[in-house]
Write a structure and sequence with these properties.
The complex is a heterodimer of chains A (443) and B (303). By secondary structure, chain A is an alpha/beta fold. Helix content of chain A is 29%, strand content 20%. Chain A has a six-stranded mixed β-sheet. In chain A, strand 7 and strand 8 form a beta hairpin. In chain A, helix 11 packs across helix 14. The radius of gyration of chain A is 21 Å and the shape is globular. Helix content of chain B is 36%, strand content 13%. In chain B, helix 2 crosses helix 3 and helix 2 runs antiparallel to helix 4. The chains are: A alpha/beta (443), B alpha+beta (303).
Chain lengths: 443, 303
């Protein structure tokens, strides 16, 4: 029997339209907009000014504090201005605008295609280098990687889990990375293993990607302590708590972190970025993004520079179809609709999904009939219908008791609800409010 | 037969009497002595239970009043000075007075002046929409128009204007309880000092973008041009982040700033119409608005 997580889960149609597409490099855009807040934590502080010449890979904003990340210029050219720009959050926030001139990289980056397998840095040096390179979790949560690698005192990492699940329908960027950059990925995982001082790493992959499982299993034989774990297809297996449960049968306690059960989870994209940072001195300024949708001419996987306007990617995939209802940043389950296609690609952009009008329209909302479908599918064992009602009625203390903060916002409840109730919308609202209350209490 | 009825009556009466005696002693033992003034104070309060004072309800507020030594931090905005004077009389203290206040909406971006740039079809509450993104217009500071404030108002003082899509405050009903101030996720309501005849002058905008961007997203946005600031003889206007703010405590309602504003973002309400010059300005204003009508929604992606 294949391994999977035990509680809840749904099976949305996979729709992996771009699964067979090789990663294409997108032309460098004339202008890039690099938001200063594209990671979880404190926004970075710019170290360049208007008119400053920059090279590709040069540091342009420094992480402000421990939970923050450096930002490097994705192009070479001149800083046009530092001003507010609309980003994927739907709000205008500070960003660095750069006018592209040529593509001159900083000298330290090794641009050769050669794969370097040997590394002899100490764990501390690795973490420092990852911190310098501004690497954050590329699965979408954009949590600064050096924070995850700095295991708090009194805790010990036993296993490294690599997340190659990509359970979101439509998205294929991680799949493409696993197929095309397998060896670099493995070196990246070895580096992460050393940084965490663990002996064993598992790569969790769902069986809907048999080619990736086969290829990585073969290569894994050359690397000590790395093995591939095939998993049953079920959403949201890519959630780190679900992945830990599926692969290791360990349960992260309520309110806890994976490290509490001796596990650290990284996405495959992040592992590749770690390889590039350590072996090639290349900071994080480009990533693989899936551009997909049933109405799109050429669903593709692109390697793009951070800061590229999304519309450029859509144009390269055949242009924006006429009957577009929504443009979604991310996948259909957890992604968020955008109010403009001009917003830039950020470190956490794993995909852009174009939905047709009839696909995207919200259906009529009915009353809750207490069918408990949402309770059955909730992967965290919560009662979404209850959380929604309490949120509507602003019963924040009860919400906290009902463990609303454990919600991973996977959207399974909204997906399954036969009455089309906007459960996750209200649960998010409740989470925001309860989070505020908790933060205030701590002060 | 008779004895059965007699027995029943006697037994039940006996039980009743016994229970009464026990209850009498229990009541003596567990008696809660409550200050009778709490009831009196509660009686004097408006019984709206709106929470405008910061307490859970009128009873809660009454308890706090009786317990406290003075009225610091205790004020019933609904009852106002009269009620507070009455409460003070009951408690034998000096009354505190506050200027009566009224809520104003610091956004005037109606449908015509602030064109929609995308369509929102999520849950229709301001709180959820604002958690998702800046809003369905280019102004991320302005009113979202789902009426969370109307819902929360206990005094029927707010209603949505279907023409502008903005809530309207009914001054005579508004008690300045502050429920709308707390509810609005865009922080658009402000409690301002009431002036004679409910006259007021305020900047109906919260847009902190630079002038050009603000003007592009809304034709009646404050563009931070400093004109009102320069003309104000009473130092009532402060400029912050390209946004003017008129301090109601300092403003003498001289109306000098109003015609200076190039975008008509300063509203004057409750004044008699101006002579000659004001007529011109009004005409200008009308022309501008009718011109803006032509703007089409060019970008109708849904959110």
């Amino acid at each position: 029997m294949l391994k999977t997580f035990t509680l809840g889960g749904v099976h949305p149609p996979e729709n992996k339209l771009s699964a067979k597409e090789i990663i294409k490099e997108l032309d460098i855009p004339e202008n890039v907009t690099v938001p200063l807040a594209m990671h979880l934590g404190v926004p970075a502080k710019p170290v360049v000014e208007k008119g400053y010449p920059v090279k590709t890979g040069q540091l342009i904003a420094k992480g402000d504090g421990f939970v923050s990340a450096n930002i490097h210029s994705p192009v070479s050219g001149k800083v046009l201005k530092i001003d507010k720009a609309l980003d994927v959050s739907g709000y205008k926030k500070d960003a660095i605008f750069i006018n592209t001139e040529g593509d001159e990289w900083i000298e330290t980056i090794d641009r050769s295609a050669e794969i370097i397998k040997d590394f002899n840095l100490s764990p501390e040096e690795i973490v420092n280098k990852i911190n310098d390179a501004g690497i954050v979790g590329l699965g979408g949560a954009t949590f600064p990687s050096h924070v995850k690698l700095s295991v708090p005192r009194g805790k010990k990492a036993e296993y490294l889990l690599i997340n190659g699940v990509e359970c979101e329908p439509y998205l294929t960027s991680d799949h493409a990375v696993m197929l095309e950059r397998s060896e670099e990925l493995m070196v990246g995982i070895s580096i992460l293993k050393k940084a965490l001082k663990v002996n064993k790493a598992f790569i969790g992959i769902e069986v809907n990607k048999p080619d990736a499982i086969e290829k990585l299993s073969n290569i894994a034989q050359e690397f000590k302590g790395i093995s591939v774990q095939p998993l049953e297809v079920k959403y949201p297996q890519g959630g780190e708590k679900q992945l830990i449960k599926a692969v290791l049968s360990r349960e992260v306690p309520s309110g806890g972190l994976p490290i509490d059960v001796g596990v650290v989870v990284f996405n495959v994209g992040t592992s590749l970025a770690v390889y590039e940072a350590i072996q090639k001195n290349k900071p994080l300024f480009e990533r693989v993004v899936t551009v997909t949708g049933k109405s799109l001419q050429k669903p593709s996987n692109f390697k793009v520079r951070i800061g590229t306007p999304l519309i450029k990617l859509i144009e390269a995939a055949g242009g924006l179809p006429e009957d577009t209802g929504k443009i979604i940043n991310g996948g259909p389950m957890m992604g968020k609709a955008l109010s403009s296609a001009e917003v830039p690609v950020i470190k956490g952009s794993s995909g852009i999904l174009i939905l047709k009008r009839e696909e995207s329209a919200r259906k009529e909302v009915g009353p809750c009939i207490r069918c408990t479908m949402c309770v059955k599918v909730c992967p965290m064992g919560l009662e979404p219908y209850l959380l929604m009602t309490m949120s509507e009625k602003a019963l924040y203390e009860s919400l906290e008791k009902e463990k609303i903060m454990d919600c991973i916002e996977c959207g399974s409840c909204s997906y399954i609800c036969p009455a089309n109730r906007p459960m996750l919308d209200y649960i998010r609202l409740g989470k925001n409010q309860v989070g505020k209350i908790i933060r205030e209490r701590k002060k | 037969m008779d004895s059965v009825i007699l027995d029943t009556v006697l037994t039940l009466s006996g039980l009743g009497a016994g229970a009464a005696i026990i209850l009498f002693f229990v009541a003596q033992k567990f008696k809660v002595v409550e200050d009778p003034r709490i009831d009196e104070v509660e009686e004097a309060l408006p019984a709206a239970n709106c929470g405008g004072c910061g307490f859970a309800g009128c009873r809660n507020f009454a308890e706090a009043c009786v317990k406290a030594k003075d009225f610091e931090g205790l004020y019933c905005p609904v009852g106002g000075n009269e009620t507070m004077a009455e409460v003070a009389k009951i408690l034998g203290r000096d009354a505190v007075e506050q200027d009566p206040r009224v809520a104003v909406l610091r956004c005037n971006g109606g449908c015509e002046s602030r064109p929609k740039t995308n369509i929102y079809n999520g849950a229709a509450t301001c709180k959820i929409a604002s958690a998702l993104y800046g809003g369905d217009t280019d102004c991320q500071y302005g009113c979202l128009g789902f009426g969370d404030c109307v819902e929360v108002c206990d005094f029927d003082a707010l209603k949505m204007d279907p023409l502008t899509g903005l809530p309207v405050v009914n001054d005579s009903n508004c008690t300045a309880c502050g429920a709308c101030v707390k509810e609005c996720p865009k922080d658009l309501f402000e409690l301002r000092k009431r002036a004679k005849k409910d006259r007021k002058i305020y900047v109906a905008c919260r847009n902190e973008d630079k002038g050009g961007i603000a003007k592009k997203s809304c034709s009646v946005a404050c563009i931070g041009c400093n004109k009102c600031y320069n003309v104000c003889p009473h130092d009532a206007i402060t400029m912050n982040n390209y946004l003017a703010f008129i301090d109601a405590d300092k403003c003498k309602l001289c109306r000098k700033c109003v015609p200076e504003c190039p975008t008509n973002s300063i509203l004057e309400i409750g004044f008699p119409p101006r002579k000659d010059r004001s007529a011109e300005t009004d005409n200008d204003k009308n022309e501008v608005t009718s011109g803006e009508k032509e703007i089409n929604i060019n970008n109708n992606k849904e959110v």
